[in-house]
């Protein structure tokens, strides 16, 4: 089994940030805030966050904030909960949450809660349990959970639980590992994990491991490195992570590395990207791979960052 090529991954992430005119960069322009979160959190987990200029990043992030308090995926784009959480997470990485007007951001988020407790992702009104997680995680980091109706939000998430123990994007929606992470993460942050049938859900999640050692998101699908995060973090939060073969999963993730140029892909031999690089390294962190910082499974930030947010005076 190969080892994690840390220096190559650091070099890859820094090169992606510089290539602003590449095809991938242009196509993903609207997602740059997420890309910043994926890349920078990976650098922090690898112990290399100091490899770039934080002031430049913070200035750019603040230019993506709208008058509403929400953040866009890039300058000149519309605000959305997805980018708002990524912006707050990146500021937390750099210990710069103080540059925010936390109440302004919190008012934007709480204003997207619907009467039934669900959340819309933005002003256009699409509802999804992903948005419930984004709102709860972001308000938690800002110490502003009291700005939303937590009880209604939790009850809405509970209404999206299925007979297999999993969760969907709306009531009656198919169980999917990504949605399960969002629902379990939101319930964990709000102290509401009693709504989860841990054995039933744990069984569904551990069944996601295929022969190669990788994890898929739904039955009969191909394995994908990103589920190393969605599935593993959920299993850790419900205390059932010992139900999968950790060594085989480590091997699968390491086999998805580009050992020459850095970066991690969805499956062995595929093209690498920042998204899968982050989820691969985050998955290895959850698996306690040597040399990586620990990551918090609910807030998706390094444990030392989360400790700083909640325990530092």
Count of individual helical segments: 14
What about the largest sheet? 2 strands, antiparallel
What's the shape? globular
- Please provide the count of β strands: 2
Mean pLDDT across residues? 95
* Helix amount: 40-55%
Rounded Rg: 18 Å
Low-pLDDT sequence parts? none
Ends: how far apart? 43 Å
Structural class: mainly alpha
Content of β-strand: under 5%
Order of H and E elements: HHHHHHHHHHHHEEHH
Strand order of the largest sheet: 1-2
Family: Belongs to the protein prenyltransferase subunit beta family.
Cofactor: Zn(2+)
Pfam family, one: Prenyltrans
Function: Required for male fertility and root tip growth.
Keywords:
two-stranded antiparallel ribbon, Prenyltrans, mainly alpha, zinc, transferase, 313 residues, metal ion binding
Brief characterization of the structure:
By secondary structure, the protein is an all-alpha fold.
Describe this structure in words.
The protein is mostly helical and 313 residues long. It has helices at 6-18, 23-27, 32-45, 54-63, 81-93, 102-110, 129-141, 150-158, 177-189, 198-206, 227-237, 246-255, 274-286, 303-311; strands spanning 264-265, 272-273. It has a two-stranded antiparallel ribbon with strand order 1-2. A hairpin with a 6-residue loop joins strand 1 (264-265) and strand 2. Helix 1 packs antiparallel against helix 3 (32-45) and helix 9 runs parallel beside helix 11 (227-237). The termini are far apart. The model has no long low-confidence stretch (mean pLDDT 95).
Would you spell out the secondary-structure blueprint of this structure?
Layout: H1 6-18, H2 23-27, H3 32-45, H4 54-63, H5 81-93, H6 102-110, H7 129-141, H8 150-158, H9 177-189, H10 198-206, H11 227-237, H12 246-255, E1 264-265, E2 272-273, H13 274-286, H14 303-311
Antiparallel strand pairs: 1-2
Helix pairs in contact: 1-3, 3-5, 3-13, 5-7, 7-9, 9-11, 11-13
């Amino acid at each position: 089994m190969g080892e994690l090529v840390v220096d190559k991954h650091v070099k890859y992430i820094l090169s992606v940030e510089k290539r602003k005119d590449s095809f991938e960069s242009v196509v993903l322009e609207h997602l740059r805030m997420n890309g910043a979160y994926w890349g920078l959190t990976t650098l922090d987990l690898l112990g290399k966050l100091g490899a770039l200029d934080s002031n430049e990043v913070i200035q750019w992030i603040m230019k993506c904030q709208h008058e509403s308090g929400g953040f866009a995926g890039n300058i000149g784009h519309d605000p959305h909960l997805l980018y708002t959480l990524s912006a707050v997470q990146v500021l937390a990485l750099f210990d710069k949450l103080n540059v925010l007007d936390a109440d302004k951001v919190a008012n934007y988020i709480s204003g997207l809660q619907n009467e039934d407790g669900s959340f819309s992702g933005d002003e256009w009104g699409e509802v999804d349990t992903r948005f419930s997680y984004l709102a709860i995680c972001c308000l938690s980091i800002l110490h502003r959970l009291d700005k939303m109706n937590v009880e209604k939000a939790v009850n809405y998430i509970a209404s999206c639980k299925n007979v297999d123990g999993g969760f969907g994007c709306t009531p009656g929606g198919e169980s999917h590992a990504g949605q399960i992470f969002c629902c379990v993460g939101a319930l964990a942050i709000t102290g509401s994990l009693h709504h989860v049938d841990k054995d039933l859900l744990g069984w569904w999640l551990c069944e996601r491991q295929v022969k190669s050692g990788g994890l898929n998101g739904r039955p009969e699908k191909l394995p994908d490195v990103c589920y190393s995060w969605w599935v593993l973090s959920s299993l850790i939060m419900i205390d059932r992570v010992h139900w999968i073969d950790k060594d085989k999963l480590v091997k699968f993730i390491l086999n998805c590395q580009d050992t020459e140029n850095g970066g991690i892909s969805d499956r062995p031999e595929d093209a690498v990207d920042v998204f899968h690089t982050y989820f691969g390294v985050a998955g290895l962190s959850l698996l306690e791979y040597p040399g990586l910082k620990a990551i918090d499974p609910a807030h998706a930030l390094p444990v030392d960052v989360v400790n700083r947010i909640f325990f530092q005076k």
